[in-house]
Request: fold
Amino acid sequence: MAVPPHYNRGVREDVVRGGGLLLSLLYAAFIGWTYVQQPQTVAHVTGGLSASVGAYRVDEQAFADGLAFFKKDQFVEARAAFERADPAERDARTQFYIAYSYYRQGWGRVYSDDALFAQGLKRVDQAIALAPNGRLVVSDPDLKMPSADELRAELQAGLERDASDLNPLRLLRERK
Reply:
């Protein structure tokens, strides 16, 4: 069997080896990224990869649905819509609204729901971590606490127990 005159076995072998090396390095980088990020779901993986190349976008329709539920004090429904809008949990503004919904649902004149406040604190910390320079301010005139730092302080104070919890004037306070 004769080899065609334009076929160069050495070049072809080098191309195959180089391609294999490139694929191996890309796979190793993906494994390293997965180890560092530790994504919990496939949505976290795809969202993290798309965010790393600047292609991640929030579903604006689902976000608008969540905002409408939030303004009607339907916080469980609002969180479901916000989580649909940001399945990879990569958008600071969406995570802020999820944290705020935990605050509003867990707030009470006599006592606050510690479980909801703890989940809200986790989400607001995540929002702060995602925000540029760790500072997040949402421009929504309906919010009494437009910054993530204010929300974090309020959630943290709600989780603490001290003598001020026994103050009867506490019954007159307003939800923020």
Summary: The two ends are 84 Å apart (CA to CA). The longest helix spans residues 9-37.
